[in-house]
Backbone:
């Protein structure tokens, strides 16, 4: 019985099946973290700020052109 357990432990140590699963899990976690950051305001605030700046520039240009 002890020989069987020792043999099983050696087989488990040399097996790399779990390594691929761990790598895929880490990649999925990394992609999920990026998606959460983007959706929770990281990208939203940058896009909103860009549109606000563009809107102010258009309004300023329109005000200058109508005052002439």
Residues:
């Amino acid at each position: 019985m002890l020989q069987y357990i020792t043999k099983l432990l050696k087989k488990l140590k040399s097996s790399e099946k779990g390594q691929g699963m761990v790598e895929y899990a880490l990649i999925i976690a990394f992609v999920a973290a990026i998606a959460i950051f983007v959706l929770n305001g990281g990208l939203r605030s940058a896009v909103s700020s860009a549109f606000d700046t563009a809107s102010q520039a258009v309004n300023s240009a329109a005000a200058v052109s109508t005052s002439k």
